[in-house]
Amino acid sequence: MSYIHPLQIGTFSAPNNLLLAPMAGITDTPFRILCLKGGAGIVCAEMVSAHALHYGNPRSGRMLQVAQKEHPVSMQIFGADEKTIAQAAKQAQTQGADIVDLNAGCPVKKINKAGAGCVLMKDELKLGRLIEAAVKAVRIPVTLKTRIALTHKELLAVRLAKLAQSAGASAITLHARAAVDVHSGSPNIEAVGEACAAVKIPVIGNGGIVSAEVARQFLDAGCAGVMIGRAAVGNPFIFEDIAAGLQGGKTAPITAQKRLQIYLDLIRQNVAYYGERIGVNRSRKTAGYWISNFPNAAEMRGQFMRLGTLDEIEKLFTKGISSL
Question: Which of 35, 106, 118, 196 is catalytic?
């Protein structure tokens, strides 16, 4: 069985079936480009508010921007209104997205209070209308990202997959945990497999994929591809690792020195993209993933969090790399 292969989503074909998950505050342009270098077949952008786009929010508008080097890219939008969802999908297409993804799985309270994210799982008629609105608005494929359940009382994976298919979505990504679990607990791969058997559109498995072995379990269950999230932060080359593992090989492990060098390069890209102040601040959000698992990592991480200029950071990292 060939686990790694091109992934067809509607009219779009990606070079492989390993996807980077959308993560708020993390999967921006610099990180997406890095993960494509690391072997991802599709990279997904952090979710953008359709409501904010409707009212011309500059920051949300910038989040839709797609760089030439970051294809294939899926732009994720969220909202609770058909009109603004359609407008947001059109804007994503205009900015160069290859795919538009609708979020119906985010458990964050702020998102849910606005009627978006995982609360849409409670109103399947409304969710269907939102998918249809996006599909009608654009020429590129529209996908849905949701979860297998809200709570442990009732599995919704099969129903939501059928809903996505009937509403015109070209694929569905299922996070194999309930919304109440957020990111904890073992993924229910069997529930995702039931959805795979129930529909003809591709089902992408997501949730707790940290190795080739876990990815294999999702693919054996019938998934057309797998989506990797937090495991890629601090190791954007996990896609190459998983691909190699699924094909019976292995890649050389990334040393602490190499990880720090990759992180420093990412910080430089953040500064180039956002400017020094914002670029450094955004880089700090993921420091715990990158500056870890080596002697004096906590001390170096603490120093990094107090620095404000790229010059200071480069000196710290040069010293840290040379000491390992």
Answer: 106
The Cα 166–Cα 145 span in angstroms is 15
Task: Please give the C-alpha separations between residue 46 and each of 77, 172, 312, in angstroms, as whole numbers.
Answer: 8, 17, 29
Sorted by where each begins, the domain ranges of the chain are 7-246, 256-323
Strand partners, 76: 101
Nearest Cα neighbor of 150 from 172, 128, 182 is: 182
Q: What is the pLDDT of residues 82-112, one digit of tens each?
A: 999 999 999 999 999 999 999 999 898 899 9
Q: Do residues 233 and 23 make contact, with C-beta atoms less than 8 angstroms apart?
A: yes
Answer yes or no: is pLDDT of 1 > 80.
no
The model's pLDDT over 161-189, given as tens digits with 9 standing for 90+, comes to: 999 999 999 999 999 999 999 888 999 99
CATH of domain 7-246: 3.20.20.70
Q: In this structure, how many other beta carbons lie within 10 angstroms of the beta carbon of residue 277?
A: 11
Close Cβ partners of 126 (under 8 Å, ≥ 6 residues apart): 80, 120
Grade residue 190 by pLDDT with cuts at 50, 70 and 90: very high
DSSP 232: G
Residue 183: other Cβ atoms inside 10 A = 11
**SS3 of 75, please?**
strand
DSSP-derived secondary structure letter, 118: G
> Which whole-number Å values give the CA distances from 49 to 99, 105, 146, 281, in the listed order?
16, 14, 16, 22
Helix (H) or strand (E) holding 140: none
Single out the residue of 39, 49, 38, 66 nearest to residue 140, CA to CA: 66
Residue 44 designated active-site: no
Q: Which residues of 164-176 are buried (b: 16+ CB within 10 A; e: fewer)?
A: bbebbbbbbbbbb
